Amino acid sequence: MRAVVQRVSQAGVTVEGRVVGAIEGPGLLALVGVTHDDTQERARRLAAKLWGLRVFDGAEDGAPEKSCSDLGAPLLVISQFTLYGDTRKGRRPSWIAAAPGPVAEPLVEEVVAELRRLGAHVETGVFGADMKVTLTNDGPITLIVET
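Given the sequence above, the corresponding structure tokens read:
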């Protein structure tokens, strides 16, 4: 599994003009992609990494020392099959490495469920929908997290 994670001061997602998920920061926006050999165990490990990722200010010098778990910060998790797009050949991405919806959807749901089991407030998009995502990146801090 792979996630592109951004520290945000706010983020939201709309589907057909209706807000389906939104957070006010500090928090994390996690775009989550699934490939063919991913498992529920990988989904749970990704959730634990997201919950414990120390990217929030906490030290006196302003260095990132705190995590969502330390602050009770919210997360917005959005499925993103394009994270497994391959652009090495030609100009049109290949999506072969992205898991199909019936495989990917339950694993993204497992990431969300595990985050909630850990105590996180989690908002989500709608799997497979045409989503419009807005955010204010705080830092900016953007990371790629893989399991």
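Helices lie at 40-52, 68-71, 101-118. Try to locate this feature in the token string yourself.
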